[in-house]
Q: What sequence folds into this?
């Protein structure tokens, strides 16, 4: 049945979408606004929305007090490294699951996903002890490994879904054309799956960037990424909302900008396969 | 060279035996067609030869060398898929060059062979396009181009024309036959279309449920089908199969008579019936005759000029010298 969408209805839907969007974005907006207030204005009651004395003082203090660039660099290495390593491991895994599945493939996939259902704190103790034993505590290498493992099930699942959309006959054609397994994956599968791989990388980079539980528990001064940077501004004494907001804004800005520029790719990636 | 021997080859998927033990030799340079209804195992058989599926038992030899455990990449065979299976991210030139690149040929040789194949297949103007920008027939040609540049021992075609429209199909059929005449390379061609089988093949292999029902030249199959299955499968429209009293007169359980071997007449003939649907092709007309007392429907091919109306009672005369006789097991009686 064809449904006609009246312009009035369209306007209503648009308005509703904007309201939902703003609701979701509001905490971030509030954080950004607060970062430009003085500490007194930040906790004023009733809250001040826009008519406050805009100041960059908080940023100056935050910049002064801690080395933002070091945290940023740690975040880039940890998020980037864990994503890259994860994709390198996940591509062959997803290839085998998508194109030469066995009777147990579905079980393995589910089992892998089930590890995501386990509360992370459940394995904190063993991992922490392992890290001490292996000397990985407060190292970027340690975090790259842990975050890669944490996100690996998602990477494999996403790639598996994308690979399943690629007709097997094309890979068979490559085989008939004399391609070895490595050449088949490198020259045929990967280029065809580039959009899927790109959105997988993007999503996992964001997940790793925002990951706080492991980064906070396994790092101290040296390897701490931006999440640790934010955490260092939350103090039980309070009255540092403005500085905390400034730190948060600085921490989320890079990923927000990245997300903004790649939103088309992300949306396509997240809804891929939903409509054929 | 491309002589392919299958020796007691079997294939099972789980508990299902798709190919029971099968022996077959395909001679060098021969155009062999595997034909049969869907699900008869013809595509599986082709994929076993290609190496895309592992055989369960038995062996495959290519030019006398055991190829049973050789991966598809190293069997020296080229395959054209039903879906064409072109690489969508590569230009036509790169698609055709791909097998040569995998064979690590130098660039000059690759260019020479690609240009050569492109000119043979009328693809020169399209070399820089992507497969997505081509028509079905052009894509098919690219797939064939990709197969011929390697100069393989044999070509494998898996229902390559079934995605094309009727007119294009006839054209491509001729082109592939032409190609075979020129290259004189072994070709194995899978189809469910008996017209393709009849027109293209040197030798037809009729398959049913993984069994070879008959192997022979198109005319051998047409003139002397080994059993009622082949009799019904080869020829269009289908052979009329008649059981009972009429067959008993010929000392057979079943007799078969092709539609083109029955004469129609308004007033005389040993059989009679009522005209049902008439299919007018212009040159010929196919009449479907009911109430003959022989079989539910008897199909008759008559000249296009002959005209009967729906419901007319007419008379039929079979040509005595081309009546096929089969026993109770469906096998031909010599």
A:
């Amino acid at each position: 049945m064809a449904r006609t969408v009246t312009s009035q209805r369209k306007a209503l839907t648009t308005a509703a979408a904007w309201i939902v969007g703003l609701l979701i974005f509001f905490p971030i907006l509030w954080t950004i606004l607060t970062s430009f207030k003085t500490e007194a204005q930040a906790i004023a009651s009733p809250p001040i929305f826009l008519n406050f004395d805009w100041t960059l003082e908080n940023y100056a203090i935050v910049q002064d007090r801690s080395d933002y660039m070091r945290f940023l660099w740690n975040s880039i290495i940890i998020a980037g490294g864990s994503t890259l390593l994860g994709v390198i491991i996940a591509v062959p895994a997803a290839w085998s699951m998508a194109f030469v599945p066995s009777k147990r493939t579905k079980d393995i996939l589910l089992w892998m996903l089930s590890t995501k259902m386990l509360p992370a704190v459940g394995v904190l103790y063993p991992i922490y002890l392992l890290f001490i034993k292996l000397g990985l505590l407060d190292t970027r290498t340690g975090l790259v490994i842990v975050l890669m493992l944490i996100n690996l099930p998602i990477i494999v699942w996403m790639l598996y879904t994308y690979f399943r959309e690629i007709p097997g006959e094309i890979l068979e054609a490559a085989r008939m054309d004399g391609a070895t397994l490595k050449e088949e994956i490198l020259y045929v599968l990967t280029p065809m799956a580039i959009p899927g791989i790109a959105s997988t990388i993007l999503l996992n980079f964001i997940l790793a960037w925002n990951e706080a539980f492991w980064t906070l528990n396994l790092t101290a001064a040296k390897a701490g990424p931006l999440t640790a940077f934010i955490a260092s501004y939350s103090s039980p004494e309070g009255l540092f909302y403005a500085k905390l907001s400034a730190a948060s804004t600085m921490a989320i800005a890079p990923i927000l900008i990245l997300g903004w520029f790649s939103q088309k790719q992300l949306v396509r990636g997240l809804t891929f396969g939903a409509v054929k | 060279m491309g002589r392919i021997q299958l020796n007691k080859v079997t294939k099972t998927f789980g508990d299902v035996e798709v190919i029971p033990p099968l022996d077959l030799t395909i001679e060098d340079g021969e155009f062999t067609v595997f034909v049969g209804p869907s699900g008869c195992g013809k595509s599986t058989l082709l994929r076993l030869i290609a190496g895309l599926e592992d055989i369960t038992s038995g062996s495959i030899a290519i030019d006398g060398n055991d190829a049973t455990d050789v991966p598809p990449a190293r069997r020296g065979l080229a395959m054209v898929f039903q879906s064409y299976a072109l690489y969508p991210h590569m230009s036509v030139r790169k698609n055709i060059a791909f097998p040569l690149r995998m064979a690590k040929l130098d660039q000059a040789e690759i260019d020479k062979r690609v240009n050569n194949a492109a000119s043979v297949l009328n693809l020169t103007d399209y070399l820089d396009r992507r497969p997505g920008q081509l028509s079905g027939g052009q894509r098919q040609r690219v797939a064939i181009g990709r197969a011929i540049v390697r100069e393989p021992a044999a070509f494998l075609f898996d229902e390559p024309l079934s995605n094309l429209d009727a007119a294009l199909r006839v054209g491509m059929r001729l082109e592939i036959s032409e190609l075979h005449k020129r290259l004189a390379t072994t070709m194995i061609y899978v189809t469910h279309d008996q017209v393709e089988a009849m027109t293209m093949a040197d030798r037809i292999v009729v398959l049913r449920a993984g069994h070879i029902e008959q192997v022979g030249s198109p005319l051998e199959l047409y003139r002397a089908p080994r059993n009622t299955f082949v009799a019904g499968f080869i020829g269009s429209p289908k052979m009329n199969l008649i059981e009972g009293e009429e067959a008993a007169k010929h000392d057979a359980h079943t007799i078969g008579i092709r539609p083109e071997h029955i004469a129609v007449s308004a007033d005389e003939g040993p059989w009679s019936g009522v005209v049902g649907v008439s299919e007018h092709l212009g040159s010929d007309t196919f009449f479907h005759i009911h109430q003959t007392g022989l079989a539910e429907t008897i199909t008759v091919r008559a000249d296009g000029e002959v005209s009967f109306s729906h419901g007319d009672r007419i008379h039929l005369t079979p040509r005595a010298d081309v009546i096929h006789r089969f026993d109770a097991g469906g096998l031909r009686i010599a």
Q: What stands out?
A: The domain at 4-230 of chain B is CATH 3.40.50.300 (Rossmann fold). Chain B has a mean pLDDT of 92. Chain B touches chain A through 24 residues (CB under 8 Å).
